[in-house]
Amino acid sequence: MDDTAFKMFKLFNGGYCCTQIMLKMALDEEEKENEDLLRALNGFCIGIGSTPKICGVLTGGIAILGLYAGKGNSIEYPKQGYSRMVDEFTEWFESEFGSTECSDLIGVISVTDWNTNQEYVLKCGNILIKSYEKVQEILGNHGFEFGSRE
Q1: What is the pLDDT of residue 97?
Q2: Does the first or last residue of the chain, that is N or C, have fewer Cβ atoms within 10 Å of its Cβ?
Q3: 125 CB contacts (<8 Å, ≥6 apart)?
Q4: What distance in Å separates the CA atoms of residue 19 and residue 2, rounded to the nearest whole number?
Q5: Alpha-carbon span 54 to 70, nearest angstrom
Q6: Which residues have C-beta within 8 Å of that of residue 99, sequence separation ≥ 6?
Q7: pTM
């Protein structure tokens, strides 16, 4: 198990969901904390609103892109290329995994399944690692240094 996988595994065991893990990893890379952001992302666990529709890894990746290039206050605009990065990540995600929906990707159909069916852990882990690496690649290709938003 490599370092990224081990960190993600520890976060998962700490009770974080996929969306939260994506952002927590990005924040940790910058040595920053943002509990409010992590709380807000809880609604994206097990697919948006626990539905299990859009995968939390996808929304987490898009949120990382937003941290780097999204609009953050009333006088700024998203940075050039932001929409393209989101499109690039979304298109890659669907092509790589065959869907953007939790239920298609891991077969979770209810919160009960999520809590009792441990088969999803490996599937989610692989999706998390590949997606986290892809987000870093996309940011780098668009001139952003991952781990430094200053």
Answers
A1: 95
A2: C
A3: 5, 8, 9, 12
A4: 20
A5: 20
A6: 55, 105
A7: 0.90
